[in-house]
UniProtKB/TrEMBL annotation, chains A, B, C, D:
InterPro entries: Aminotrans_V_dom, PyrdxlP-dep_Trfase, PyrdxlP-dep_Trfase_major, PyrdxlP-dep_Trfase_small, SP_NH2Trfase/AEP_transaminase. The modification N6-(pyridoxal phosphate)lysine is found at residue 197. Belongs to the class-V pyridoxal-phosphate-dependent aminotransferase family. It comes from the Bacteria. It comes from Denitrobaculum tricleocarpae. Residues 64-324 form the Aminotransferase class V domain. The keyword Endoplasmic reticulum does not apply. The keyword Transcription regulation does not apply. One of its GO terms (molecular function) is L-serine-pyruvate transaminase activity. Signal peptide: none annotated. This is Aminotransferase class V-fold PLP-dependent enzyme.
Length: 399, 399, 399, 399
């Protein structure tokens, strides 16, 4: 296996952690009860509000994203509560399974794993729920297994149109800090996020951004919880501390990540992800392959899932890429296993890293004898060059 | 505040992370579904068995130690189950509170926060429980708030003497890899550990080491759980993988930590901690101050809690130390607040770091106008020098 | 300027330092007079012999390559000595200027800056020197300003054919550990090397690999020297030490670099560089641009210099690349300024990094309105894919 | 050998490099011809003027301090020039030997290796030199082999009183950024410095800070030079660049070091070093050992050399310390070999690191069976505590 040079970690997260963040984390662990820690704590607790675009609290767990899913549910819902979830793919299915495990009654609106959630279907179901049995609507913003985005503003409108009081909970694990997201403006009650995607950190931190309505629900919530309890968090968080030992070194990295995102500007971060996603899709189309997401309005800007032609094994293709070109691509999950591969183009990423990534895919297709048309990389480069030209013009105009 | 030079992080954890571990963690995050990751996973999953001295599985959570407490309880016990816990101090009290929060019925054997658990009291209580209502006995091996150790072998003997079938669960968060511990030999069913103490890592990983008996209990356990589920872990762990994104970079550090511990030799690690604890106690005694732990057989080798004379505020003393000498000491927790300070002498530590630590305490006592006798550092040095001399002799003899 | 993602440092050195080496260097500086340092010293001093393929000593300077040029001259030659040098480009010209500055009489065989040295011309000149006035022949193995290689074995044969006793001195700063080199086999007397190219280190170390004949010359050499003195080095080097404070942390990195090169295998390292150079040339040819090196037998495997069409400014092109694509390319030096750009494809490098690099060039040509044909990246990918396919077959055959 | 915990690197340089500087250096090497590099270059070139307290240029070599010695001489003096040097110890002797090697005629005023240079002796010698044959006076500010400081202002006055036009050259390798130094105010013409002491960097950079008078001398200087040439440096330096590849990653660290020194305040840095030196001397005196420096006005604030009683081997003592306590102490050099050991207390250092250091010495004396009185550490702590108390008072008074 060829291991020289830098590995291309092009799964849809964890992403390529920038040196600046790795170095920020590579400092001695500090006393988590010292005044200096309190300053760090406030800096990241407040800073994350600017990323979620929310005014309510953000709770930070020393845990991976799966934990933050659990936290969202056990802090707001009671055993036996009905929740409406939407089958956008593998991860929404896992969240639904978790809801079952912890004693909720999830209802799963069926999807085709090729698009985001259908707001109309949600609205219709909520209109039918005249008794307001449904306590929460849970959707995945960017379904990491398929590369399809659910327009959260439409879901919000659907709930409002139905006049339904359910909480809105959104998983942004693979969209946060990559795809435009607005907790307050969109009326989201709990947003679940993780550190290892757009935030450019290693895995190990996860988040709940919480609305007043969700905080109110938490006050009467009878679900068993301890580690995940918002209530236990809120007190110490007020002064920048945590109820148990936080993942200090990851918090160093988080502070750096927030700074980096604002240095670039969140809108620029989103535009960059949009550009790389569009370039990727042009490459896929030039190759004559099919983008898994069948709804262009739902295309993801953080990853693209690609279907291989029938009879061709996506995992054999990925293995050829890994062994020859030192690049990891995302696999197809559960019912998509062997059928699709996923290209992560999120996090600390630039045009030439994308060009290298797409080159690895194009050469891998050839090595794995997958039928395809050459020219995908070329198509991406043409687009990126034209964007760069336009960008340069725009900058001049602005001066 | 004087900030030059290296900070002395002498709280009883997190500890001074060695450069070798920080550098091991400071590498690019890898694909957690790649074959290379599987190798790393098996290396740490198997490696941790050598640290717990167990043959059964060790589950590794991307979470802090509080989470591993919860995992131990929710995987083995049913809602409403009685558990016998022992009040050794602040952390045993927190564990008891957690048991309540998640729906168990803890019974708390009262302690004085100055010693480890009394095995006789446990035996007596179990003998009375002829109906075997008590499903688990939970003790803290090394109570981090007081510096008192519970002899786990005695607790095992007490349970056996009572002929009681309860599970034995032990918290080793501040003793693992610092104080002798033997999961299998002592018949422990679930051991709870964390990364940020004797393992010399930053916080962010925690452990459950699990016996066959505990695994059997898990099969019939009806407690709600998802993130903490052993069952979900066991499958992927068999090939070195995890059911959700692991804290990859901390696992890099864990592999390095396991190597470092075996390079030194676990018995040498324990002897080193014993030596530093004895030197610390000699200093405290020379100062004329009182060691919080009143039972010499229970002295902790990883930390020493020291009482200040009545009328003197331990936090004012700690502040003087922090501001003048760039050292963090542990504070008194809950009912010990302001009354004691704690010296952590665990992890990647040596004689001169201890000498610096004790020097900071001695000068801080003077600055804070605490009445004390000089000579504590001198007493520690005399002991350490004599130990070094003995050690040199021993090595020569062995050659 | 777009600064996101990883910078592509595609100048012909310094090269992209791999994380493994950066981390090796990121450890505390050690006592350069301790036994542990002696072990490190011997490890790198002996290790470098395996890289130069020599049995004589290698002297390591805490200095950049320019210093090692000076060391080669002042340790072997006397003031006023005649030396025969060959004008392969900017760096051979600088070396010649240095020879003048330190009191030698260099004779400069004229070259066209588009090829390596002509061994016949050297042979002819030496045959004419019947009085053996010429004390040394100095050539640059890989001229970094032009991307042209001088076949050192041919130069050796030329000297031998002329029956001339001159020393042979070779600059391998941009070829060492990238292009096949054999100090002993080719009868080189002094080889000059640096850390920041094929050795994958930051700048700050340089080398003299020295033959017995050169050591003998040093014994009678009257040139003034102190810092560069081999004689002062040789004594302490015997036990792994240095006559003055060495660049300790760079030596940590050097030990790691030597290990990495042998893990890959030097022959594989050379083959990888050959492959990337060939891919690059195919791209240049597809673009319809001219490779500066006009002699295919002299093509460099570590860099490719490319001429821009008349009337197009290479520096404007490089600026467009830097600002839009976060990549540094090498500039044209002295008489090539503005006329050529140079692509470094050496060091810790792989196919996808090269694909990204060439993509940046192709898009930059478009942005800078340089006339070119599209398809360079495509041509490179076709070649790299076919090489990967061949490689896979070869590996299977070998098993 | 006991290797756990942090090594105490208490030689008089290299010093304990702070994490902040190691991390600054642990970033990818950049293009040394890019605009970004020019910014870095200007930052360090200008920044070093604030450390030397000079208005003229500072030249930065990618080389160790020995190289900067050579640079000072070959840029200003002509072959055969007379220079007046002063034998303060091993390093002044090495500098004198270097002067001989490069063709100068050094005259060496004899010293006793127990004090700094005697300004009166210099004045007398210069007065005798009515022909002004002596072209430079060279002294070592802080003699690293003995721990004795030469008052440079007195040497300046001596030269002026003699009405002599010689250049004044000063080696500040082990005093710069540790002991008060003022290039312009004291009329120094060339100051030689290095990176690995008070600047807290690894070895690999060295400096010449240069007056107008020295620059003028350089214009007519006929010594052979290339690598060390100021003239070649000056041009590129004007825009932040260098004539050959600089040691980029060390320059990252240098920029950080300059920031750190100014954050603390240079006067505070000097006061800290003074305090640690005084504490060390109190310890030595309490042990009943002799400080090598016999002239209290010349005591060094960056290191203390200690004589062992006759018949006791300082190297055996140092070995006992290294093997038992993981600390490196400085050895006795040349005629002091085996007779003295040296304690470095410079760089990124604090009270508790010093307490650990002195504890290691005190225990080592016992292990090595050197006759001594206990109480040295105690004496140091008493002094440091009183200083801390005074400091707190001073701060309050200032508010």
């Amino acid at each position: 296996m060829r291991k020289q040079g830098r590995h291309f970690l092009q799964i849809p997260g964890p992403t390529n952690v920038p040196d600046r963040i790795l170095r920020a984390m590579d400092l001695p662990t500090m006393d988590h009860r010292s005044p200096e820690f309190g300053e760090l704590g406030l800096r990241v607790l407040n800073g994350m509000k600017t990323i979620f675009k929310c005014s309510g609290p953000v709770f930070i767990y020393p845990a991976s994203g799966t934990g933050a899913w659990e936290a969202a549910l056990v802090n707001t819902l009671n055993p036996g509560d009905h929740v409406l979830m939407y089958e956008t793919g593998h991860f929404s299915t896992l969240w639904k399974s978790m809801a079952l495990k912890i004693g909720l009654q999830p209802e799963f609106l069926q999807g085709d794993w090729r698009s985001g959630a259908d707001a109309n279907a949600i609205e219709n179901r909520l209109r039918d729920d005249t008794a307001h049995d449904i306590k929460a609507v849970c959707v995945v913003h960017n379904e990491t297994s398929t590369g399809a985005v659910t327009p959260i503003d439409q879901v919000r409108e659907a709930i409002d149109a139905a006049g339904h009081p359910a909480l809105l909970m959104v998983d942004t694990i693979s969209s946060l800090a990559s795809i435009d997201y607005r907790q307050d403006e969109w009326g989201v009650d709990v947003t679940v996020g993780g550190s290892q995607k757009g935030l450019m950190l290693p895995p190990g931190l996860s988040f709940n951004a919480v609305s007043d309505k969700a905080l109110a629900a938490a006050k009467t919530c009878a679900s068993m919880k301890a580690f995940w309890s918002w209530e236990d968090m809120a007190g110490p968080n007020a002064t920048g501390f945590f109820p148990y030992t936080p993942a200090t070194n990851l918090l160093y990295g988080l502070a750096e990540a927030i700074d980096m995102l604002h240095e670039e500007g969140l809108e620029n971060v989103f535009a960059r992800h949009d550009r790389h996603a569009e370039a990727t899709r042009r490459a896929v189309q030039a190759w004559g392959l099919e983008i898994l997401c069948s709804e262009p309005n739902h295309y993801s800007s953080s990853l693209t899932a690609v279907r291989l032609p029938e009879g061709h094994d996506a995992d054999a293709f990925r293995k050829a890429v890994a062994e020859n070109f030192n690049m990891s691509l995302g696999n197809g999950l559960s019912k998509l296993a062997g059928r699709v591969f996923r290209i992560g183009h999120l996090g600390d990423f630039n045009d030439l890293m994308l060009a290298g990534t797409l080159s690895g895919v194009e050469m891998g297709l050839e090595l794995a004898a997958v039928p395809f048309e050459r020219g995908g990389v070329q198509a991406a480069l043409s687009y990126l060059a034209s964007e760069a030209r336009g960008n340069a013009g725009g900058q001049e105009a602005a001066e």
